[in-house]
Amino acid sequence: MKKLYSNKLVILSLVLPGLIVFVFAILAPICLSVYYGFTDYSGMGSFNFIGFENYKTLFHDAVFGTALRNSLLLAIGFICIQHPLALIVAAVLDKLGGRGEGFFRCVYFIPNVISVAVIAYLWKFIYNPDFGLLNNIIKAFGGEGNINWFSYDTAIWAVLIVLIWHGFGWGMLIYYTGIKNIDPVLYEAAAIDGANQRQIFLRITLPLMKPVIQVNVTMAVISALKQMETVYLLTNGGPGNSTQFTANYLYQQAFKAFKYGYGNAIGVIFIIICLAATVFLNWIFADRDGEKVSGGRKFGKVKEVL
Predict the structure, then answer these.
(1) Which residues on neighbouring strands pair with residue 294, listed in sequence order?
(2) Three-state secondary structure of 243-287
């Protein structure tokens, strides 16, 4: 076997298929996107090389600024609302055990199994100003119950609630898996040392979940930037671009307004922002004390932590 894997032709035959897929499915489209971002290509016919004109226009584009702001709001919602709740729910499910654990795990994940189109139209009915569930609940408690949730002032918050709710299951499941991989011996040792549930969660679960939290938060930021399907089906960026998001605006410019070059310029900025966010989050979560904790190994004495 060692002789086989030392053969360069064998190594090349194993690496080449993946390399070809990477080049033609990922690297080449990115390079073409960068190139078209410097042109006035409409998606059909000939085009001209216009340099940085698309990027100059982009940085003065108020709608693109709104899309970035909305993506930032969604990222904050993911990090500050969705993920803390998902982590707490995952910890509670881990302690629940039995059939209840499996049942509630499935219940929380159901929205991620349902089609995005079904989710969008379901929430359209919930938000309906005439017969929607939300307005009927408000009426039942004595309110007016005729609120237009997709008006200019409230539409962005209505969309954010749907997106945060819809992605909750994925975040919870990832945190749940991370908690399950923590060595239960650490919990037993902490309990013997007199630690309560709060201390165990803050001093053992959270530190050991740091790599999982880093991955989940990074994915949340990228997901906030590339939200498209749900937004498109709910509001398509309206009213008045108040619910516009980066990916949806890219689609509108490239495939509806026939500004393919401009759409690719948006895509390049999107990639740069994603890379910058990833680098920044890696820096935020970096171990500056040189003591890396991984899955319960090298955790040290539980007593010292508590």
Answers:
(1) 297
(2) CCCHHHHHHHHHHHCCCHHHHHHHHHHHHHHHHHHHHHHHHHCCC
Tell whether the torsion through CA atoms of 60, 63, 69 and 74 is positive or negative.
Answer: negative
pTM: 0.84
Q: What's the number of CA atoms in the CB half-sphere (13 Å) around residue 257?
A: 14
Question: Would you say residue 287 has pLDDT above 80?
Answer: no
Q: Which residues pair with 39 in a beta bridge?
A: 49
Tens of pLDDT, residue by residue over 177-203, are 999 998 889 888 988 888 888 888 888
What is the C-alpha to C-alpha distance for residues 103 and 98, in angstroms, rounded to an integer?
A: 9
Calculate the alpha carbon distances from 301 to 186, 200, 203, 204 in Å.
Answer: 9, 13, 12, 11
pLDDT digits (tens, 9 = 90+) for 221-243: 989 988 888 999 999 998 989 99
**Nearest alpha carbon to residue 123 among 88, 152, 157:** 157
Q: What is the 3-state secondary structure (H, E, C) of 90-137?
A: HHHHHHHCHHHHHHHHHHHHHHHHCCHHHHHHHHHHHHCCCCCHHHHH
Burial 37-73 (b: 16+ CB within 10 A, else e): bbbbbeeeeeeeeeeebbeeebeebeebebbbebbeb
